[in-house]
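[Meeting: bench + compute handoff]

Bench side (C.D.) handed over the final construct sequence. Compute side (W.E.) agreed to return the predicted structure before the next meeting so the bench team could plan truncations. Sequence as handed over:
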Amino acid sequence: MTSQILNSFQFNLFRQILAMEGLDLTENAREVFELRIQRFAIRHGLPLDQLPFLLKQDETLRIALAESLIIHESYFYREAHHFTTLTRHLLPERITCTDRPISILSAGCARGEEAYSIRISILEALPQVSSQIKITGVDRSKEMIDAAQVGLYSIHALREVPARLSEKYFAQQMSDLFSPNSEVREGVDFFQLDLLKESLNKEVYDIIFCRNVMMYLTSDARERLKSNFETALKPGGSFFFGTTEVFSNPPVTLRKSQSGNSFFFKKVGECS
């Protein structure tokens, strides 16, 4: 049996403090969380037994620890069936019902793999209207946003991208890293934004992606995110969540829909 790094009182104290940032330290992953907390304390030269008190006083330190406990690993074309549904069904539907630009949000965008995957899918399926579709990626981690803006990726991150598309849309850079070309980059912007603390404007997005994020959050934080997304979606807009995520108690204006293998929520109301 592995000896515990934290006793029950200490672990619960960390749970309460990190819940302030919306993070849920689940008991079934306790060993992993404890190791990461210990490594964080060592890396920052902080005594582990004093760390909870320092976290209570320092929001920046608290956010840094929360970010270190989340797995930011992502890759291009993850759950690619969502992009197929987007380009074959949802976007054509939106384009025919309005003459204004279409806005897509990638929330919790990490290093930008999702936002750039959306852009490539649009360039491939709907090139004639790609200039009318704007994609915005947001994440509360400055480190992730900086990485997305730089846009350098390992071959491992491109493992699900068809060879034809990787050759067409990526250029090899130094040290076997790859970068999206200018055609991909020009349709995507990235901003640092904490959606648990800052509200999105009302009815600004046609499509919202927030996949594999809510699994890390407390129930209260999940409810705050749902409310934020409900407000930000335009009538008739769609919201994608992760395939392995359980999305319970959706807001009353969001109705669960299915297209092929893709499940998503659609906001009631007419597109305009």
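W.E. noted at the follow-up: The mean pLDDT is 93. C.D. will use this when planning the next construct.
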